[in-house]
Design goal:
The structure holds 2 protein chains of 2 kinds. By secondary structure, chain A is of the alpha+beta class. Chain A has helices at about 15-20, 75-90, 130-140, 140-145, 160-170, 185-205, and strands at about 30-35, 60-65, 100-105, 115-120, 175-180. The chains are: A alpha+beta, B alpha+beta.
């Protein structure tokens, strides 16, 4: 197996670079794990709306957690169906977000109902935040956020306020792992297309 | 069906972003006000020379081609109070130098190397003096010099002379590329977009106080009289290393034709202005000079893989057209010109500074200008490229590439040199005429530290 063993105790100076430093190699063959400092980044790099969160072996991503306004649970659940229908009607509706996966979770561990939006994607969210908000608006994702406490009332026009909400409700991972690190969804699709084309070519050769 | 549009208050908007006077020369002067009364004395004296969008460029002869704009520190220096100053957007309050990492003005482009005191908090205002020719520019320079010398406490901290470079028959920059080929049309001006340049853009994308592309009006900085009809300007003084550029072309092309093709691949257009999407293998100067045709193309359908115009070419990065998202919210108006002497063809690099000194006008620096610099220009991952930046405006240090898609196998140029260096820059607010008058009314006692 190519999987890297996890050390019991990461120590600086030891030969376990994936655990304590930002990885510098992007070799998809070699699985990588990365431990991320509490603040969510390794070195402060300024983005337009705040610090830039790094790309990890598990690509870019965020986990936004917000408290649900009283009585809004069903509204949020219903929007799950909305997104399903929207993607069915137009499979490219979320394409600009460059997503791999979305996971929406509702949970209550004793402090009221919370909503978690977890996304894994291929672009730095800060870089394309206005595009993301536009897609959120068009596809109805924003409507989910309007059911959360603290969502800015002027979200339609106030990009900095929306960016602030996401930043304040984002909980950076402290560990991320990629079995095929740093590979984008486009590259996965290209590889599968190539595989299909190759299979088809072999069929034609019979 | 008639579309409801805001009526533009053209008699209040400075002409700068709307109408282009027939100028072949200009002078930028960067000013500092030692006290608010000094700044207001200067402003009072020059106000009547500031041209509006309703007259400059119209049939009415109007040679008041002066433009004035202020940094955030400049508004403070004129006596705008702290409560009002706090309502301006954060990026404008911080100023361009503080946003260097976001913009990619790092390394040799870093504000610590900037010239003309542009990174200094003492930079308060810019005055742009457009002129028909160099002789007229000199007259303007002398006249303004005389005027400033009579305003105690106003200091010219630097200046820059601009002039078109020969041949004067069309606008172009020092590398030889045709300029002003594509510009957004503002809804409400009555101007019709040229084919392929997209629908008119709502005025609120460029001027404060109007409906923008979200069909709403964002909150204005206060007081409204100061912000309404204003715009933000991002100023960049970009040195062009013509010798480096010509050497690069020679290294990558054996014949003049091959060199022209490399130049075209970097830009996305031949130096004549003809777009590669429409004429991928040979130049077509007639097409390049025909605005009815030279913008009439897209990328998604006509050149999805970049076999004509590479995905990393300058024009494809700066305006991805149908392959970009949310494009109507990313449009900007560019103004400016060339400075420094032209380097004649065949002459070795002479070490003199030459380049473009340009302004980007918009309603939101963070959403429009900073997005363009941060993402389109400097994101190595742009459109999945991986290790590329804009060949002309991107922060280059010899470690980035340029991919030229080609059948059967793409060509990759490794280690692009630095064709340009940012030598200075600043964020300005370009107020409307009423706002300029309002600034004159501010009381002396509101002076800040």
């Amino acid at each position: 197996m190519a999987t890297q063993p996890l050390p019991n105790k990461p120590k600086r100076g030891q030969n376990k670079p994936q655990i304590v430093e930002k990885p510098t190699t992007k070799d998809w063959v070699k699985p990588q794990a990365i431990a991320i400092p509490k603040e969510g980044y390794f070195q402060l790099e300024k983005g337009r709306y705040g610090p830039v969160f790094p790309q990890t072996p598990a690509c870019y991503g965020f986990s936004v957690v917000g408290k649900v306004k009283p009585g809004r649970e069903q509204a949020i659940r219903d929007y799950g169906k909305n997104i399903e229908e929207a993607v069915k009607a137009d499979p490219s509706v979320l394409a600009p977000l460059k997503l791999h996966y979305l996971r929406w979770v509702l949970f209550d561990v004793g402090s009221g109902l919370h909503f978690m939006y977890q996304g894994i994607f291929d672009t730095d969210f800060d870089k394309y935040i206005e595009d993301a908000i536009e897609i959120f608006n068009q596809s109805g994702i924003t409507t989910v956020f309007t059911n959360l406490e603290g969502w800015p009332s002027d979200w339609r026009t106030n990009v900095p306020a929306v960016a602030k909400f996401f930043r304040e409700h984002q909980f950076p991972s402290f560990l991320e792992y990629g079995e095929y690190p740093f590979v984008s969804a486009d590259e996965v699709k290209k590889a599968l297309t190539l595989k299909a084309a190759f299979s088809s070519m072999l069929d034609q050769m019979q | 069906m008639p579309v409801e549009t805001d009526a533009l208050e053209l008699d209040d908007i400075q002409h700068f972003l709307i109408s282009r006077p027939p100028a072949l020369a200009a002078r930028y002067e960067f000013l500092s006000f030692q006290e608010p009364t000094a700044g207001r004395t200067w402003l009072r004296g020059i106000l009547d020379k500031v041209g509006t969008a309703s007259t400059v460029g119209s049939d009415i002869p109007d040679s008041r081609w002066v433009t004035v704009a202020f940094t955030w520190n400049g508004l403070r220096a004129l006596g705008v109070d702290d409560a009002s100053l706090a309502t301006f957007p954060e990026e404008f309050r911080q100023g361009m130098a503080a946003r260097a990492q976001i913009l990619g003005t790092t390394g040799r482009n870093d504000p610590q190397h900037w010239v003309g005191n542009l990174a200094s908090p003492d930079l308060h205002a810019i005055v742009v003096l457009f002129a028909r020719d160099v002789a007229e520019r000199e007259r303007c320079r002398v006249e303004h010099q005389g005027f400033v010398s009579g305003c105690a406490g106003v200091k010219v901290i630097s200046s820059l002379d601009l002039a078109a470079i020969p041949p004067f028959t069309y606008a172009h920059e020092h590398f030889g590329y045709r300029d002003r080929v594509s510009s957004p049309v503002i809804e409400g001006t009555g101007e019709q977009p040229i084919p392929g340049s997209g629908p008119p853009v709502k005025a609120g994308e460029f001027f404060l106080g109007y409906t923008d592309e979200t069909d709403s009006q964002p909150a204005l900085p206060e007081p409204e009289v100061l912000s309404r009809n204003g715009s933000y300007l991002a100023y960049l003084r970009l040195e062009e290393h013509v010798g480096v550029f010509r050497n690069f072309l020679q290294q990558h092309g054996e014949t003049p034709e091959q060199q022209e093709l490399v130049a075209a691949k970097l830009m996305g257009r031949w130096r004549s202005g003809a777009p590669l999407v429409l004429t991928p293998t040979k130049d077509d100067p007639a097409l390049g000079s025909d605005p009815e045709r030279s913008n009439n193309f897209n990328y998604g359908k006509m050149d999805p893989y970049g076999y004509g115009c590479p995905v990393g070419a300058h024009i494809r990065r700066m305006n991805p057209r149908d392959t970009g998202e949310n494009m109507q919210r990313r449009r900007m108006i560019r103004r400016g010109g060339t400075y420094g002497p032209a380097l004649p063809e065949g002459k070795p690099e002479d070490g003199l500074e030459r380049g473009i000194a340009a302004f980007v006008g918009c309603a939101s620096l963070v959403r429009q200008f900073e997005f363009a610099m941060n993402v389109w220009v400097n994101d190595p991952q742009f459109e999945g490229l991986g290790n590329e930046r804009d060949p002309f405006v991107g922060t280059q240090d010899g470690t980035f590439d340029m991919t030229i898609p080609k059948r059967p196998i793409r060509q990759k140029i490794k280690g692009l040199p630095e064709f340009t260096t940012v030598r200075g820059g600043a964020y300005f607010f370009l107020p409307g005429i009423k706002a300029l008058r309002y600034l004159l009314t501010l009381a002396v006692e509101t002076q800040s530290q």
